[in-house]
Specification:
homodimer; 425 residues; alpha/beta; Aspartate Aminotransferase, domain 2; 2 domains; 3-stranded antiparallel beta sheet; 14 helices; 14% strand
């Protein structure tokens, strides 16, 4: 029965019952964590050959000693692998260190200090960034760090609301960019439609140095079904807007987050501009890590095979969360959620005003969830409704416990809110 | 005989003879390079166990899975090793990626954007940086990238001219920093005296956010003799100026430049400020690389043992250069040079106006040297005199050829200059 049709008395009875359940949970002193998109040990184990396998040959196919200095944009082996995996021309790719987040931060810092394409530095403008919401908290933290104003863009089933995006970027020259996780978006698991990708490529922007931060973190992280993302590189090339794209990718959630290989790519001109700055910033990134990663996969097919195994492990976790939500709350009218086909998260929406309380109750019962509001710029979820569930890290047993606790806390928070509302009427 | 005492006729005869020698060299189509401080293969081979040795245990002493996300400031093992090696408190250290240059660049970028210690961002001031000269070209390139004005500070046998430094920093609040390679300086191989280090620690600076960029790149890179650098950390702690220090170090020239482990350290307050920004910039650096490096050395003693072997290899190279210079040009009065006790370079000073021509002649004869002027800000050596010789990379056979060619080119360039001067008199 839907909670909203229940009387105050019925709700109070239910609250009593849930309170007992909740207090029982508290006494078990649990310590569960589904706050971050951290791979489980079992997922990492699939890459342990990287730790075991020696590097027999450190000379690359181009005769470069990968132990020594040099090669600013990455060894050919790994560039070619990424190029083939993501269908981006080799010449548009630079391989970075172990973290695409670091590349994103540095890209923002570069734009802040130097601007792009000969325009004014972003630090000297009233720079605004479009942020599809809910989104990735670390992206928002970067924008906030640089003092760039963030503008919420609601997500639709096809990605960000493109009518809104087009209208805003056409009119306001201070809107300098949009930050996207285009496939299996964090946290909603939404896949940008072909039309969305095309409209992003061809839209008219008042800012001449407009950039699309294309954080394709989950490019091959399929779980239930394999979505294919339109190729923003070839589309933007067609429209002559390829320098607008700054594309990010890494193997952090493919091999080891602790030693991934990250990539940045952009159009023919802007990638050269980036390279000039890189040439001052470093002599070259970790080539042996690039080689180790290449030796483990050999080619794009090797990566895809590996991702199937990772996907299967993640599927078990997703199943636990989705089945439990179905069983526990589907008929209560207190939670909406997406069933994502891939990525790392399940994003849920409580009734307005119930997210913070749910997260708080969970924390007090020994379950850490991503903070309510974290999925919005400035930690401000205007509805106090979205919670990001990250099921990857706990074991299946722990996860079942965690999601059970989540359901109890959610019910309790919602019932209390409903009682309060009904009593005020 | 000293060239300057020779008549024009004598010089012209000598020039003819050298010309024949030079043209002969050209016909052999050599391709030699002593331009960069790149370790030789034989040096790298000493670390090949890092490539061969599997990681049997990826769990750190603190129970952290180094394959996964997390640990912003580095695994305890490597922090403790660096702490003990450099005598810097563990809590003041952050381990970075594979390049200390990258950490230096990022430190400048951070100061440009955010300032430090609550002061105005350096990008908003007319920031000036003191640059001991000759110095490291990549340091100067970073200052130039950010538009910071560089002020030349002459080097003495004890480090930068401290009278000049003290006077400048006391008067001008736009002088925000000084960039130092305090031990076996690049390129002169000068070791800062205890007095220099103490004066840097205690000097009064008009800029409240003054920083000393302490790039201790050759901290343990002894060749002929082991110099001990005064501990700027404990000295500045004594004077309450420890937040003034930003200390850099890496294993790039210890293990592999392609996969080193870099470090940044600073005073109690400023290191926390850096950490806050790091927490936005990345989730953590490559922990498996840290672990591999630790597993290879085990402790500071292990590093020191290893450095003895590296020093022996470098000594052979230094010997070749120094002996040849002694033999070929010592009595000619055309070149001054330092005999460094460690580091990576031999820095030579031609007669004024002869460096560029020497480098040009060498290049045309198949020998690449560091560009003349590279050791000065804006590539402007006011005397056109300094040339940095980097003997590490070539084999001993190649190096002997290279330094022979250098001597021929130097003599030729100097003789031509002297003839020109004498004929103008």
């Amino acid at each position: 029965m839907k909670y909203k049709y229940m009387s105050v008395e019925e709700l109070k009875k239910l609250e009593q019952r849930l309170n007992i359940e909740y207090e029982n949970i508290k006494t078990s002193n649990l310590s569960l964590d589904m706050s971050r998109g951290k791979p489980a040990s079992a997922q990492l184990d699939l890459s342990n050959d990287i730790l075991a396998k020696p590097i027999d040959n450190y000379i690359t196919s181009e005769g470069i000693d990968s132990r020594n200095y040099g090669i600013l944009d990455g060894i050919t082996e790994i560039k070619t692998l990424f190029s083939s995996l993501l269908d981006i021309p080799n010449k548009n790719i630079i391989i970075g260190g172990n973290s695409s987040l670091n590349l994103i931060y540095d890209a923002f810092a570069r734009l802040y200090i130097f601007g792009a394409d000969g325009s004014e530095p972003w630090g000297k403008c009233k720079t605004k960034i479009l942020c599809p919401v809910p989104g990735y908290d670390r992206h928002f933290a970067i924008c906030e760090e640089f003092g760039f104003e963030m503008i919420n863009i609601p997500m639709t089933d096809e990605g960000p609301d493109m009518d809104m995006v087009e209208n805003l970027v056409r009119e306001d020259e201070n809107i300098k960019g949009i930050i996207c996780v285009p496939l299996y978006s964090n946290p909603d698991g939404i896949c940008y439609s072909d039309s969305t990708v095309e409209r992003l490529s061809c839209m008219q922007t008042k800012a001449k140095d407009f950039k699309i931060f294309w954080d394709n973190a989950y490019a091959i992280h399929h779980v239930y079904k394999e979505h294919k993302l339109a190729n923003i590189f070839s589309l933007s090339k067609k429209y002559g807007t390829d320098d607008r794209i700054i594309y990010f990718f890494s193997t952090s959630k493919i091999t080891f987050p602790g030693s991934g290989v990250a990539m940045i790519a952009s159009g023919d001109n802007y990638i050269e501009e980036i390279k000039k700055h890189f040439g001052i910033q470093t002599i070259g990134h970790n080539k042996l890590n690039q080689l180790r990663t290449f030796n483990f996969f050999h080619n794009a097919e090797g990566v895809k095979e590996h991702m199937k195994k990772l996907g299967d492990l993640l599927k078990e976790k997703f199943d636990i969360v989705l089945n439990t939500l179905d069983k526990e709350v589907a008929d209560k009218g207190i939670l909406k959620w997406n069933k994502p086909d891939g990525g790392y998260f399940i994003s849920v929406f409580t009734l307005p005003g119930c997210a913070s309380e749910t997260v708080k109750l969970a924390r007090e019962a020994g379950l850490v969830l991503t903070g309510a509001g974290a999925t919005y710029p400035y930690h401000n979820d205007p509805e106090d409704s979205n919670i990001r569930l990250a099921p990857s890290y706990p074991t299946c047993g722990e996860l079942q416990k965690a999601i059970d606790i989540f359901c109890v806390c959610l019910k309790l928070a919602t019932i209390r809110k409903l009682i309060e509302q009904k009593e005020q009427q």
